[in-house]
Amino acid sequence: AQKITQTQPGMFVQEKEAVTLDCTYDTSDPSYGLFWYKQPSSGEMIFLIYQGSYDQQNATEGRYSLNFQKARKSANLVISASQLGDSAMYFCAMREPSQAGTALIFGKGTTLSVSS
Amino acid sequence: NAGVTQTPKFRILKIGQSMTLQCTQDMNHNYMYWYRQDPGMGLKLIYYSVGAGITDKGEVPNGYNVSRSTTEDFPLRLELAAPSQTSVYFCASTHSVGKVVETQYFGPGTRLLVL
User: Fold this and answer.
1) CB–CB of A101 and B43 under 8 A?
2) How far apart are CA B89 and CA B110, in angstroms?
3) A64 exposed, middle or buried (CB, 10 Å; 0-12, 13-18, 19+)?
4) What is the DSSP secondary-structure string of A50-87?
5) Rounded mean pLDDT of A18-27?
6) In the structure, what pLDDT confidence band is assigned to residue A34 with cuts at 50, 70 and 90?
7) Alpha carbons B62 and A19: distance in angstroms, whole number
8) Is B41 on the interface with A (CB under 8 A)?
9) B106, A45 contact by CB (below 8 A)
10) B90 contact A CB<8A
11) Of the residues A20, A91, B30, B39, which has the fewest C-beta atoms closer than 10 A?
């Protein structure tokens, strides 16, 4: 079974609109971390936001927020007021203590296209 | 800080050739990783290191070797290149003490084409 599932291969949004990118995860560890990374067409991996499994509040970083629903095992990324520069591939990733070297497990990604 | 740097940015190899992908970090991180990203896919772990002199296999280690002689450097070696190793390779690092693990920071990637 996949540990990280991103069901939206592509999403389209207009500038200034909000968009939600879905991510569900599967783990039996009570302690884990969830990450979102952005990969623009230039190829680098840019860290966006982190949510720990014990964090009581949803993480926020500027226009990015993480809608963390622990019971549903979902960690959706919400981008408010989309900008053209948000067009990129977005990856959800998880780190769990049992994972080798605390490495990240990645989903397959969602391509976001923002139009004017 | 330069962060995580990787060289080369792009390389074409012939089948059977060997090469070393270089990775250096200047953040004094103890943990380092090599991932590969195939087209349209997420990243998969090749090898990792929890400190100088300590390395271990990840999910897809076949065809690769690593070493970690210093905290800063974590080179990835391909001995006999195969077309299946055509991919983008990312090096990453983080700091971990006890149960506290910080965010992973990635290098810019190396695009490898094996023909």
Assistant:
1) no
2) 5
3) middle
4) EEETT-SS--EETTEEEEEETTTTEEEEEE-S--GGG-
5) 96
6) very high
7) 39
8) yes
9) yes
10) yes
11) B39
